[in-house]
Design a protein that fits this description.
This protein is an alpha/beta fold and about 140 residues long. The chain is about 25% helix and about 30% strand. The protein has a single domain, classed as Rossmann fold. A 6-stranded mixed β-sheet has the order 1-5-6-4-3-2, covered by helices on one side. The protein is globular and about 35 Å long.
């Protein structure tokens, strides 16, 4: 998995006009990351109840949100709402922060969901991001 240090919200790959669905928003999320995504897309983030197809997903995941099985289920649910080629980012607290999740747990959940963790970045002072992609049909 490739790692990019200090990339921030602008490196999540979202572009103008995209609808980004956000899961597990809470008062501990990084508002600068959220604002950066909204500035990049020109649209407000939509919540878990959004009833249409989205272009990308942000999942704020902490260790008390559940284990690998719950994250696997969340990834499958998020992918079901995505347009073809949509990006999924799992954002987790950095090491030493409350709620830290070991990256290997995110990678294993992605594998179990039939997906692949492709890169990791720092998206702010307290959060890291792991990009999750669908496996191509030829690899299944």
């Amino acid at each position: 998995m490739a790692v990019s240090a200090g990339a921030g919200a602008g490196s999540l790959g979202f572009t103008t006009g995209q609808v980004i669905q956000e899961f597990l928003y809470d008062d501990d999320v990084d508002s600068a990351v959220r604002q950066g995504v909204e500035e990049a897309t020109g649209t407000e983030l939509v919540d878990e109840e959004y009833g249409d197809v989205s272009d990308g997903t942000i999942i704020w995941w902490r260790d008390d949100d559940g284990g690998q099985e719950e994250l696997t289920d969340m990834l499958v649910d998020a992918q079901a709402n995505l347009d073809d080629g949509g990006l999924i980012w799992v954002l987790t607290p950095k090491p030493g922060r409350d709620g830290h999740v070991v990256p290997a747990d995110v990678e294993e959940a992605a594998r179990t969901a039939g997906m692949l963790a492709t890169s990791a970045i720092s998206v702010g002072p307290a959060w890291n991001g792991i990009r999750i992609a669908s496996r191509s049909r030829s690899r299944r």
